[in-house]
Amino acid sequence: QLQLQESGPGLVKPSETLSLTCTVSGGSISSSSYYWGWIRQPPGKGLEWIGSIYYSGSTYYNPSLKSRVTISVDTSKNQFSLKLSSVTAADTAVYYCARHSVDVDTATYYFDYWGQGTLVTVSS
Amino acid sequence: QSVLTQPPSASGTPGQRVTISCSGSSSNIGSNYVYWYQQLPGTAPKLLIYRNNQRPSGVPDRFSGSKSGTSASLAISGLRSEDEADYYCAAWDDSLSEVFGGGTKLTVL
Fold first, then answer.
1. Which of A31, A72, B46, B70 could be a cystine partner for B30, CB 3.0 to 4.6 Å?
2. pLDDT, tens only, A33-45
């Protein structure tokens, strides 16, 4: 059974860079037809897609966050990572990593496996 | 402000049928599949409906999805207390982005 686990600091200071890693177990991050994504959810609010990466390094980013986001992959460790720069209180959220599967018939995407999420608070 | 529009809340009594709507545009719902996610309190979202109306293994047939034009809906029949959760619609947008609805909080009265 595929499992994803987020890890990283739970507290980040304003203007600094948020860094999280997602470790994938029970399957290979290098499998075809799968991207790997990050989604966040501010307290009491809805879901926001941050971006996704393929094992080759190809990425898609949310246009509203693109200037501050970098997603990378380490296939040797079966991990992918998120960096969000210049954070403010508005970036306080539960951050989820998830498998972003490709529907091959239409080249569209959906999230079928999710990590449990990790709360990141931006505060001095 | 979410790209896809959902009502913020919905409610029903046990046994009733409830529907949740999701409105988008020609670049997302109008041209791509719609997916629905269920988020129980304090947990990660879970895929509930894929390809507009397909249920993953283990999802009861009380849950059904439909799509027409640039709108979609999720129906829950035979409502149960354990269905109380937040529900999100989502779709891939032709601008190469994943877009979500703002979520609908379902209360079982």
1. B70
2. 899 999 999 999 9
